[in-house]
Amino acid sequence: MEEGIVIVGGGFGGLAAAKALDRAGVPYLLLDARNHHLFQPLLYQVATGFLEAPAIAYPLRPLLRKGRFLLARVEGVDLKGRRLLLEGGEALPYRHLIVATGSRPHDLGVLGVGEHALFLKTLEDALKIRNRLLKVLEEAAWGQKSLRFVVVGGGPTGVELSGALAEFLRYVLPRDFPEIPGTEVHLLEAGPRLLPAFRPGLSAYALKALSGLGVRVALQAQVDRVEKGGVVLKDGTFFPADLVLWAVGVRGNPLPGLPQDPRGRVPTDPYLRLPDHPEVYVVGDVNGLGLPGVAPVALQQGAWAAHNLLRTLKGEAPLPFRYRDRGQLAVIGRNKAVAELGRLAFAGFPAWLLWALVHVRELIGFRNRLLVLLSWALAYFFREPGVRVLWGRP
Amino acid sequence: MEEGIVIVGGGFGGLAAAKALDRAGVPYLLLDARNHHLFQPLLYQVATGFLEAPAIAYPLRPLLRKGRFLLARVEGVDLKGRRLLLEGGEALPYRHLIVATGSRPHDLGVLGVGEHALFLKTLEDALKIRNRLLKVLEEAAWGQKSLRFVVVGGGPTGVELSGALAEFLRYVLPRDFPEIPGTEVHLLEAGPRLLPAFRPGLSAYALKALSGLGVRVALQAQVDRVEKGGVVLKDGTFFPADLVLWAVGVRGNPLPGLPQDPRGRVPTDPYLRLPDHPEVYVVGDVNGLGLPGVAPVALQQGAWAAHNLLRTLKGEAPLPFRYRDRGQLAVIGRNKAVAELGRLAFAGFPAWLLWALVHVRELIGFRNRLLVLLSWALAYFFREPGVRVLWGRP
Questions:
Q1: Which residue is catalytic, options A3, A160, A184, A189?
Q2: Of A265, B86, B128, B314, which sees the most CB atoms within 10 A?
């Protein structure tokens, strides 16, 4: 059977499109290889034990009012035949398609990243990092040796991850691992300042706040390659590391069969459609209009694509996408964050409070909001990352 | 270096021994292949999505006051040489040893159990069951076909698991999987009644309560083999099943090198020691004195072994173990449980409330208690198992 409207991907973009269709009372089918929406902005807190994984994941089915859901991996799209190719060989014809397949980590061509560094993109990635972190701590405790962690990338993810890692170590080490003589967290940024998308004053604040947490920041530190025991910079400097976290570089994750630019993003017209296939919309991180790969862009594009689709169904002309930039936030640690809202820029506790409120508000589901608030309150008052369970066979 | 007192296993037995040594101010080393204590009595709620895994696991390190911890898998014991053989080839000499290695699932010699049924013993087992459950629901929804679940074993685990499964389906199906025409949950018990360790009146109550939840109970149903598509009874009856859960049969999990009986349990003297090696204590599920493999026995034996060890260190004679049976509880579902406390036997809401209180009280850690209470409250009032995240590559 042919499906009318098909959405591929249940992230911020796909879900925003689904909700717009729900509101219009128009049926659709949403496909995802996972059964849940993942709130990626808090993934680094799962990796560092401050949140349990289910707190930032919400099942997709109960979120779709007018839509049906299919758990399936889409292996490609046949644009001419207007059908999706599913894993297992099935084909699914569509009339209208919204592609919201997001992005995936990228090694930026640096040797050794895939083998010796860990990414942070999926729930499984976050648990893998947490497991490796707990494992190296156990080994270091038994051998009574020091540990070094290296985070690569001074953007929001790298700053959040290194800050959370430093707080994790500060809280957990004295009580649980007194045998470990010392730990170091290094943050390597290729450019001249942290958080390059923010104003220089906020970059300076982030640098100071991270240093206060004990993170050693190296600027202009361009990584040449990652090896088993550490990271080698282009200038030859070697950073020994027991764990390397790669928090820089993503590329679009387009469906095979779609045109793409060198960054893996799909070029669209201003209406978010493929120029030659106006029945196909592309939204979020995988859209090639050049906007940053952040949740607000995906949310707005998803809804916009759905509205344009609904307009064309009614015989109206689509409208060119216009991004409403409401500003940006990045968190460094307890009581420490930076905020940029239009002309307003501020840092410290007010920015941290705003960050916390925005993130709890954007989370999906009463239960998840409650769990996150509770976990944060406990971590805040007891200075303890609550989730320190090492999985699987050690 | 030689270790004075070594405890192998951080379950109920090992942890009770550790706490007794803590109280006496005597140092020890605790070894476990996992970094956490697992509260197994609530594992079936993780398997059915009512609790997240971290809520019933607590890291061992912060629990040990006078003890050190080593994350290691013990592959055997050399009784004559008084040393433990660790994975990787290392040997760890000891002066006194407390073995608390618990039990593991056992197929009871039934063909096909290992290949076609799922066990419930570890956190990974619970997540595997939850994943498989969510996966078969997705497949059935897409194919619009009915589903059958078979739980084997009418003891507490089988009763709890089939009851929770029935409640999961009752809550989740109408809202999330309206495409599925129907589901059946079958509980197979080889004997003439459910919960054979309880009084007949409570068995009858459990049967009635489970039936009220829609579970179809088959008594005198002896399983001959498990096949890909279902379970075959000794009398030839075939129960088709999309998922088979094996909730019957455990055997002791002794360290290689210890004497064991046919059920994998280690025979000890009344003081919980190996007859030929009084420096080795064996407690909990792996102890061969013939007591049931439940948490209260392990807790009491762990503490008792530690006290006997402390007595011998002081030159006093050890005391023979005496089990203080405080009664037993089993839960069937929301507001439904059975309780047997000495001469007192009751069922229904009071038993359920007692069960809930006892379990929250026995949980370790303020955070876990709060998480479990919160999850239960949400599930109770919203009739929704909160954790429905399908992991990994579908």
A1: A160
A2: A265
From A57's Cα to the closest Cα of chain B, the distance in A is: 7
Q: Is A139 annotated as catalytic?
A: no
Could you tell me which residues come within 8 angstroms of residue B56 by beta carbon, excluding any fewer than 6 positions away? Answer: B38, B39, B40, B42, B43, B45, B46, B123, B363, B368, B372
Distance from CA of A240 to the nearest CA of B (A): 24
Quick check: A176 and B61 CB within 8 A? Answer: yes
Q: How far is CA A50 from the centre of its chain?
A: 16
Domains, chain A:
3-105+250-313 (3.50.50.60), 107-248 (3.50.50.60)
ipTM: 0.89
**Distance to chain B for A368, nearest Cα, Å:** 9
**Chain A residues with beta carbon closer than 8 angstroms to that of B73:** 393-394
Give me the tens of pLDDT residue by residue for chain B, a chain 394 residues long: 567 999 999 999 999 999 999 999 999 999 999 999 999 999 999 999 999 998 999 999 999 999 999 999 999 999 999 999 999 999 999 999 999 999 999 999 999 999 999 999 999 999 999 999 999 999 999 999 999 999 999 999 999 999 999 999 999 999 899 999 999 999 999 999 999 999 999 999 999 999 999 999 999 999 999 999 999 999 999 999 999 999 998 899 999 999 999 999 999 999 999 999 999 999 999 999 999 999 999 999 999 999 999 999 999 999 999 999 999 999 999 999 999 998 999 999 999 999 999 999 988 888 888 888 888 888 888 877 778 888 765 3
Which pair of structure tokens corresponds to residue A87? 């894993």
Question: Structure tokens of B239?
Answer: 């129960």
CB B97 within 8 A of CB B89: no
CB nearest A138 (choices: B71, B73, B179)? B71
pTM, full prediction: 0.93
